[in-house]
Amino acid sequence: MTVTTISAKTNQSSTGVGTVASTSISGVTGDWTLVLEILGADSGVTAAQIDFETSTNAFSAILAGPVVSFVGQVSSGAAGPYAQPKRYSFKKEDFPGLPFGTASAVLRANLVQLTGGNVTWQAFLEY
């Protein structure tokens, strides 16, 4: 199995919303899994959303992939739904229309919304 970083561990504030990284997926064929880990979030976070986005034309047009939204604290001392980390995974069978294996195809994880604090997260691709 190969693991490719889409977004290395990053801490973003509400003023840091935007694209963190992108990687080529043109050579990825067969099964794959996208993984998003929320490693921490302030208790004041009232809205956060991270989108996986793909494109075959340098993001002039975007094909949406998985989207994760959350609110509130995520920390190592928390229990239940607020425990750290929160891990989300998405398989090829769930998103068969994404352009993996297509010429010029790229993938990025994009923090598109963050209100009320900081969030620490990372994303990667397993194939």
Task: Please outline what is shown here.
Helices cover 0% and strands 53% of the residues. By secondary structure, the chain is mostly beta strands. The protein has a 4-stranded antiparallel β-sheet, with no helix packed on it. A 4-stranded antiparallel β-sheet has the order 2-7-4-5, with no helix packed on it.
Structure description:
The protein has strands at 3-12, 18-24, 33-41, 47-55, 63-70, 86-91, 106-115, 119-126. The protein has a four-stranded antiparallel beta sheet with strand order 1-8-3-6, with no helix packed on it. A four-stranded antiparallel beta sheet has the order 2-7-4-5, with no helix packed on it. The chain is built from no helices and eight strands. The chain has one domain (3-126): Sandwich (Jelly Rolls), CATH 2.60.120. With 127 residues, it is mostly beta strands. The mean pLDDT is 89.
Query: How many domain regions?
Result: 1
- Tell me, what's the shape? globular
First-residue to last-residue Cα separation: 6 Å
Structural Rg = 15 Å
Q: Residue ranges: pLDDT <50 for 5 or more in a row?
A: none
| Oligomerization category of the chains in this entry | single chain
Q: Number of helical runs? A: 0
CATH architecture call: Sandwich
Listing every helix as H and every strand as E from the N terminus to the C terminus, the arrangement reads: EEEEEEEE
Which CATH first-tier class would you pick?
A: Mainly Beta
Tell me the number of strands.
Answer: 8
Share of residues in strands: over 45%
Structural class: mainly beta
